[in-house]
Structure formats: C-alpha cells, structure tokens
Amino acid sequence: MKTAKKLVPLRDSVVVDITRGEKYYVGVCHELGVVTQGKTVADLKKNLREAIDLSLEDGDNLEYGMVEHPDIVLNLEQEEK
After folding, report:
1. How far is the C-alpha of 78 from the C-alpha of 81, rounded, in Å?
2. Do strands 11-20 and 25-29 pair parallel, antiparallel, or not at all (unpaired)?
3. Is the pLDDT of residue 8 over 90?
4. What is the DSSP string of 48-76?
5. β partners of residue 36
6. Closest CA to 74 of 2, 32, 19
C-alpha cells in the first residue's frame, strides 16, 4: 500500500528590500540571495525579474518552495529626515 504524500502549497511571491544609493536603486531579495540595481525603479524592477527568474530556473523554484515566476513585492526604505 502506498503512503499518501502531503501536498505543500508553493509560495507565489518574494519580498525585495530597496534602498536608494547615490546613483542607483539597489534591490535585495534575502530569500533567494539575489542582489541587483537600476538607475530608476522601473529599471530595477526589470533587472529583479530577470535575476529572480534566473535563480529559479531548472526546477530550483521547487527547492525554494516557490512557483516558477513569483510576484515581486517591493519594500522601499525611506530615509529619515
């Protein structure tokens, strides 16, 4: 008799912390160890999508318990005045 396997839902999003440097926005996804940058937030988002997708290709997404192309949740750190 076969033992039933427990199904675990895959996560569908990753969190990226964004800081603004002197010239670039820098995004860090601690869950995946991904770091990239862009001159604008739009450039950063494009670079993040590419870097995250590359880190999860070839089935690595299952190792991390994620869907193949997770949503990206951005957290922008504001400078205190």
Report:
1. 9
2. antiparallel
3. no
4. HHHHHHHHTTTTHHHHTTEEEEEEEEEEE
5. 27
6. 19
What CA–CA distances, in Å, run from 1 to 4, 5, 8, 34, 44?
9, 13, 22, 43, 52
Using alpha carbons only, give the angle 15, 35, 10 rounded to the nearest 5 degrees: 35
- At residue 73, φ and ψ (nearest 5 deg) are -100, 120
Dist. CA 48–CA 17, nearest whole Å: 11
CATH 3.30.160.250, applies to 13-76: yes
Q: What is the pLDDT of residues 23-79, one digit of tens each?
A: 999 999 999 999 999 999 999 999 999 999 999 988 889 889 999 999 999 999 876
**21: exposed, middle or buried (C-beta count within 10 Å: 0-12, 13-18, 19+)?**
exposed
